[in-house]
Amino acid sequence: MQFHHNGYVSADPRVQPAAGTGINRPEELPEFMDVLIVGTGPAGTITAAQLSQFPDVHTRIIDRRPHRLEIGQADGIQSRTVETFQAFNFAERITAEAYVIKETTFWNPDPAKPEQIIRTDRTADDPTGVSEFPHLVVNQARVIDYFAEYALNSPARITPDYGWEFKELSAEPAHEYPAKVTLINCADGADSLERVVRAKYVVGADGARSQVRRSIGAKLSGDKANHAWGVMDTLALTDFPDVRTKCAIHSTAGSILLIPREGGQLFRLYVDLGEVPENDEGKVRETPLEEIIERAKAILNPYSLEVKDVVWHSVYEVGHRLADRFDDVPLEKIDSQNPRVFIVGDACHTLCKSRARDECVHAGWLQPGMENWSCAFWASTSAIAADLQRRT
Fold first, then answer.
1. Which of 318, 337, 361 represents a domain boundary (last residue)?
2. Engineering a disulfide at 256: which of 209, 213, 249, 328 sits with its beta carbon 3.0 to 4.6 angstroms away?
3. 42-51 and 359-391 are packed helices; what angle lies between their axes, rounded to 10 degrees?
4. In order along the chain (392 residues), what is the average pLDDT of each group of 10 residues?
């Protein structure tokens, strides 16, 4: 972070002076805006944080939730991602409250007693020194908080407009604000009243069931591996010796990926639920928490697991899906039409983790594609800002 350019700054250097649309920014969602971001998850919030440095671009970000996210799900932060946090001036602060993964232990069946597990290997988390930053585990909500803080403290003073649900979008190319967006006011006491707003650009960051993606006719396609996992953040008593270390555990009863949580008390268990029949039709997602706990106990044999509390849990199937395009321009018109609507994050790409022992393999082949997409996305946001600044 650089400051003290012209003499000393006696106030908080992370709070930049308001400018442009950040001065007297209206609290209520206006009718017209340059950029409308739908969704305050990681992809939407980082887009808002980036655009908050362009105060001449009027950016608003909406979410159907009544308030900030409180409990996240995707809480593992790779070291190269922490480098991105450094660019937004909060890498050190979030590292201080996170669990830092320094090594991984591997547990497999004991050759002498195959029904029991033993530690068979221990490896450093980053043996080749890929980054100066650590591998973290921290609540996704806290990451969003830091990006939101950056957006608020930047010249554009961007803050989320909660309680607005995206319904549909249509294009009117001849209009100064060509994206016509219908929203539903889902705040308490609003009676689900509809409202139309207009934007020059729309960014759909509204998750895997994206309504923005549906509005532009883009589709997700991919496959699933017919395998399911139960995941839970738990407070438990156990004599398992590596409970505060990342562990990949494989036994005759199944597999577990154990991830310690920040704070020194909780830990997350990804529990193997086995193969899913072709005609399951999502029934595996109804697997009760009690069954997940019993499977975890069987996998950890001969060690005990006495669960005292589960603060969050879910069941998911392994799968990978990718959108056929990332904006509203049909493939046959990519050389003649500029995009006005973009989809980012889970709205255009979803991936569930595979078996614990394959986690690093999946991350390895996926990373190059993610980096290429990230470069394209940042280029798009820069192009939006440049275009809007030329027009103002």
1. 318
2. 249
3. 40
4. 77 91 95 97 94 96 92 84 92 96 97 97 91 93 95 97 96 94 88 92 94 94 83 97 97 96 96 85 88 97 97 87 91 88 92 44 31 43 60 52
